[in-house]
Write a structure and sequence with these properties.
Elements lengths: L3 H55 L7 H4 L6 E6 L9 H15 L4 E5 L1 H9 L6 E3 L8 H16 L5 E9 L5 E9 L9 H10 L1 H76 L1
Parallel strand pairs: 1-2, 1-4, 2-3
Antiparallel strand pairs: 4-5
Helix pairs in contact: 1-7, 3-4, 5-7
Length: about 280
């Protein structure tokens, strides 16, 4: 049976842990609101960039263009977005599993990992990685996404990869986030082709198309990074909330056990005093 000193030490340790988890929950709640606002502000830009690309593709017969037909005979490029830290439930593991399963489907696939957790997941399974980034997950900027997009586009344009996929966590609600796979290249057009005249227009507008697709891919990566950052903080809020509730239960249980132990000790001392007094009286 635990002594009062041992119970007191356990109570103090759990109370300290509860204070830490409560602080982390509050910090993550504030980060959710801040990053979610940035995510919502980026969505119109992403939708506009996608609309421009679709309009360009609808202007001509792009069946042979690399941004529609594929970048080459190489395998897919998987851009996996996870976090740099843990304590966020299954957020990192779920996205990493999805990215690894996609990478394993095709021989010769390559990967770019954004986040230390995804990088470590791939390393443990000896999955080939082209690049790995860390320190971007919780507070991403468009310049970070542009750097990643430049690498992906360079590999695609050179034919080293035939497809580019984004694997990240999609935000639904505070309680629901799911891994998502999004093929950003080649782009799927919504409109029909326009024949040879369109191809002549294409040869003149190649620089414009290159710029539009580049902006689209960068904004898609940036949007995925922002959405993943929101999901990471939501998962951390829920994990810390669960930890606080568990700490409260443990504190209540240990407090009851401490009081019972203390009451037993007091009762024993009284019995010893009374017994000693009786002995003296006799």
């Amino acid at each position: 049976m635990e002594t009062m000193r041992e119970l007191r030490l356990r109570l103090g340790s759990i109370q300290n842990t509860k204070q830490i988890t409560e602080s982390m929950r509050l910090i993550s709640t504030q980060k959710v609101q801040r990053v979610r606002l940035r995510m919502m502000e980026n969505k119109p830009y992403l939708e506009h960039a996608a609309s421009v690309v679709r309009d360009l593709l609808a202007e001509a017969d792009y069946a042979g263009h690399r941004y529609f037909a594929g970048g080459g005979e190489g395998g897919p490029l998987v851009i996996l977005i996870t976090g740099d830290r843990g304590l966020c439930g299954g957020y990192n593991t779920n996205a990493s599993k999805e990215g690894y399963a996609l990478a394993r489907k095709t021989e010769g696939s390559q990967a770019i990992c954004v986040g230390a957790k995804g990088r470590d997941y791939f390393r443990r399974r000896q999955q080939e990685m082209t690049r790995a980034f860390r320190g971007l997950s919780e507070n991403p900027f468009h310049e970070d996404a542009r750097s990643i997009a430049d690498i992906a586009l360079s590999m695609y344009n050179e034919g080293r990869v035939g497809e580019v996929y984004l694997v990240y966590t999609e935000y639904h609600t505070m309680l629901l986030q799911e891994p998502k796979v999004w093929r950003v290249l080649p782009v799927s057009p919504d409109g029909a082709g326009a024949g040879d005249a369109g191809m002549r227009w294409l040869s003149k507008g190649e620089a414009l198309i290159q710029y539009a697709v580049s902006a689209y891919v960068a904004s898609a990566i940036y949007g995925a990074m922002l959405e993943s950052a929101v999901c990471e903080q939501c998962s951390r809020v829920m994990s810390m909330d669960s930890a606080v509730k568990n700490a409260d239960k443990m504190i209540a249980t240990l407090t009851l056990r401490f009081n019972e132990t203390r009451q037993g000790a007091i009762t024993q001392e009284i019995a010893e005093v009374v017994g000693g007094a009786n002995v003296i009286a006799e």
